Fold this protein.
Amino acid sequence: MGSLAWEVIGVSDTEGGCAEWTFSAEPDAVRGARAAVRGQLRGWGLDCLADLAALLVSELVTNSLRHATGPIGVRLVRPAEPAGLLRVEVSDPLPDPPRERAARPEDESGRGLQLVAGSSRRWGTRPGARGKTVWFELAVPG
């Protein structure tokens, strides 16, 4: 894999219709997650989604870093059904689901989930065995 400017704890799989990485809960995780997502989407021929997916992943990983102390997982899934869909998931060990809130104009944070909600087809959270996963779906242009 070569020398990386950011640390990936593990790469589970980047073949087929799924790619998955685990990052340590450190500030470089945001940059690493963005780069991994962009690289994988480029490899899948989905450059058209790379910037948006990387931006939304940045928001969710930043949210995880702000509240969780354990590893952060990032997963891309291209399900067979329904076709034309990309699902992106960010997991962390904190069980509490994130809450969308209305940020005031002077607030420096608090807009991440609004951005995810407004930019994706749909989004949500689900509990996991250890923590939670926040996911969103993007339509793949046909």
Remarks:
- Residues 24 and 71 are 5 Å apart (CA to CA).
- The two ends are 32 Å apart (CA to CA).
- The chain is about 30% helix and 30% strand.
